[in-house]
Design a protein that fits this description.
Radius of gyration: 15 Å
Strand content: 25-35%
Oligomer: single chain
Order of helices and strands: EEHEEHEHHEE
Shape: globular
Largest sheet: 7 strands, mixed
Strand order of the largest sheet: 3-2-1-4-5-7-6
Distance between the termini: 16 Å
Length: 153
Amino acid sequence: MTGELLDVGCGNKPYRALVPAARYTGLDIDNAFTRRVGAADVFYDGSAFPLPDAAFDAVLCSQVLEHVFTPEKFLGEIRRVLRPGGTLLLANFLPDIQDVGYMETFMDWHLIYRTDREMLALTDALPFGDVARIRQFHDALDNITFLEVTKRP
């Protein structure tokens, strides 16, 4: 992922050192916690990204979709800011992973787990009629499903 990259739900930007982007922009939900973290370059209200159309060559969205109750609208915003020919890397926890109890009990996370099929179904419901390629894969521990979606040039 190169060029101008948007990290949606950037947190403290843990992937920054791993991505050779020419410009790395962090976007996060606007609340007291993310303001304290202080890593995001841009904050949003949970609805619309305050960013121009087709502004990024790549979008990274990891450990965010699990918290989103309206994924079609959320992914529509990602599509809007992604340039033609751009790439989206989207991750979501799979159901039945070993750490579910820990995440929900000790971290107080109430996540939406999605199967591979459910992840692919999200792309069917999107205005991504301009999709050139979709690739799906898992992490090495089989805890996370990834979609790599490339928008047509």
